[in-house]
Amino acid sequence: LQSRLPQVGTTIFSTMSALAAQHGAVNLGQGFPDFGCDPRLVDAVNEAMRAGQNQYPLMTGVPALREAIAAKIETLYGRRYDAATEITVTAGATQALTTAILCCVHPGDEAIVIEPAYDSYAPAIVLAGGTVVPLEMEVGAQGYSVPWAKVAAAVTPRTRLIVINSPHNPTGSILRRADLDALASIVEDTGILVLSDEVYEHMVYDGERYQSVASHPVLAERSFVVSSFGKTYHVTGWKVGYVAAPAALSAEFRKVHQYNVFTVNTPMQHGLAAYMRDPAPYLGLSGFYQHKRDLFRAGLAGTRLQLLPADGTYFQCVDYRAVSSLPEAEFAQWLTTELKVAAIPVSAFYSSGRESGIVRFCFAKEDATLRLALERLAAI
Ligand code: PMP
Ligand code: GLN
């Protein structure tokens, strides 16, 4: 069989989790919490199952969940999406991202991807027959930033889509209002669409206010806004997410979605809809994770690992060049097998495999897990 994705192997996340398990390492590699979710959420799902909510839901998602999502977006970001025509529930953010790409990228189209980038964007663009145009973020003392003038210069008549992600995996950087304005001035008066991956929207630190694309009128008109309950409610294995987009875009999204997965599991949707009535869990998430970020950063401050800024997400990047000259993948393997703390090489997020001497740790862990990892990293 001739591969549709000849460049692609097993994801770095699966690879590093397997290595961590094999060597009994503390797994700060793959991004997922090592603690449970709120038992009230599990109860809400059980209740839905017992109430007989176990058959296909509507193709677009359970209405109560779409309503709850629309209400949350309106309250937080000030834009009203019509739950009937503009919100679609998906099998995690991954499916939302892939489906959004498949519904708008035609063979020969170009899609600009800001790198380092989460690893699912590029393969979806390739499967759609599009061309990935990678554009590297700049990294300085202030951390990572997007050079918008370079993004503007990368636009061609074939550009169909720009993929952005804030808060950003793996760098932990966030886009501020000026960034969204810069992007808006690039796409305004063009046919370019925006795919905004906002799965870490509720993890923004130091009192910073999250800038969703949904809150930006020019961008919201031409954007697919994607999020995931897996991140927000500590249930990465449930694989429930959503996309919010203007009706015309949502209609095209749904054409692909109905033959992609058709629907997403019913009892989880009912449980999430009930649980979302209380905003406290997602409003409290930044504080919850800021504590873990600060604990982890304080522990690493005495090492030779140089901490990069971490403004959002549950990831902390470190520059290890004072410790080792190994390439990133080898350094991450060494950390995992010798120090018994797993990390992810940031080179895996570049199509070029660019080496910058930086690895990513995930701090979505029990404080005790973080302390154990810090003990093991103390000697570095
Ligand atoms: N986008 C980003 C930036 C992510 O980090 C992840 C999760 N690792 C996803 C999308 C996928 O989310 P989900 O598990 O809901 O498919
Ligand atoms: N998003 C998670 C991460 O960046 C992992 C997702 C996955 O394993 N595919 O670590």
From TrEMBL:
Q: Which domain of life is it from?
A: Bacteria
InterPro entries with a match to the protein in the record: Aminotransferase_I/II_large, Kynurenine-oxoglutarate_AT, PyrdxlP-dep_Trfase, PyrdxlP-dep_Trfase_major, PyrdxlP-dep_Trfase_small
| TM ranges | none
ATP-binding in keyword set: no
* Cofactor names: pyridoxal 5'-phosphate
Aminotransferase class I/classII large domain location, by residue?
Answer: 26-377
In its UniProt record, a GO molecular function of this protein is:
transaminase activity
Cell wall biogenesis/degradation in keyword set: no
Its keywords, alphabetically, are:
Aminotransferase, Pyridoxal phosphate, Transferase
**Protein name from the UniProt record:** Pyridoxal phosphate-dependent aminotransferase
